[in-house]
Amino acid sequence: MLDFTALMATAQKQGWALVALDCAVDTTTPAGEAMANVLATFAQFERRLIGQRTKDALAVKRAQGVRLGRPPALPVSVRDRIRSERATTGASYAAIAARLNDERSRRLMEARSGGPPRFERWSAPPRSQARRQAPAGGMER
After folding, report:
1. Angle at the Cα of 123 (from 119 to 126), degrees rounded to 5?
2. Where are the domains of the chain?
């Protein structure tokens, strides 16, 4: 409602007409201005009612013990492990997540290779000594 009333005030101050074609409201007439104000007031009233009904319905669901929000992404076993590590070691969530991710990576590597990971020394291939020079004109054709 504030946006619409601000728009109506701007239109009146600057001297231009505000005509809403979908609800046949012309703010250049007293009746049209009154109708626009009534429509804006009831639109605001409706938004407030919807918000109140939503809040009341969520309160009822909470009272019934319904878990609201999206479903948990982690399995129960992982959530239980995180809770127990927090309680016993006092580790941060970041440290626990890093341990879990390291273990997961190791298991994935073992599954792909058929055994424990084998770390080999890797070095980049030697750079080619003969680099192609760009033509003097700029772009290649």
Report:
1. 160
2. 2-63, 76-113
